[in-house]
Amino acid sequence: MTAIVLAGGFGTRLRHIVPDLPKPIAPVAGKPFLSFVLDWLSRNGVTHTILATGYLADKISDYFGGSYSNMRLSYSVETTPLLTGGAVKKALGLCDDDSVFVINGDTYFDVPLPEMKRQFELTNADAMLAVKEMRDFKRYGTLTIDNWRITEFREKGPCERGFINGGVCILKRRLFDGFPAAFSLETDLFLKHTYDLELRAYPCEGYFIDIGVQEDYERAQAEFATEVLL
What we know:
By secondary structure, the chain is α/β, with parallel strands linked by helices. It is 25% helix and 34% strand. The chain has six helices and 14 strands. The strands form four sheets. An eight-stranded mixed beta sheet has the order 5-6-4-1-7-12-9-13, sandwiched between helices. A two-stranded antiparallel sheet has the order 2-3. A hairpin with a 2-residue loop joins strand 10 and strand 11. It is globular. The protein starts with a strand and ends in a 5-residue tail after the last helix.
């Protein structure tokens, strides 16, 4: 299995805490956050991970090199911002797989990837998103799901209970045919083509955290230090 990890963002909301590092390698419990993501990918049978980097890209490649655990690491480096869809499209040039996992580099969601891939293949979906049911939140947009088909992406706002996109998806590479070099995976592909594509949800109750804001970054420090993942 191959995974593309989106690790090229500027991390502006954490810049005051880690001013000289890209967000995916912000230190958490004594090691780069991305190390936890790579550990999880390795445990789930991923053998090739492509790190889509941009901002301070050398910091990531210098630290991790060409391999991690039993995985081969490759780097797809943006010289100009390509947005999430463009970053994935560029990274696809480094693999030959017909379908690939795409992971947010600042998110940890403990999804069983082999099972998710099996469901993806059984449903013959164009893309499958791992979703997490949350309560009493306002930071994330929500999904409308009908028999596990995604029918709507809803804006952020206060929500008592709902499913969010957990930042882990598997998709067919042909979806990127015809798209420009720079575009948004979420807005230009998923949102604009919700009714054109077969977008499926994969519900998962696994541990989830997104270190994109200071509150959750600090929570990650405490939870990862206490080995909450074990």
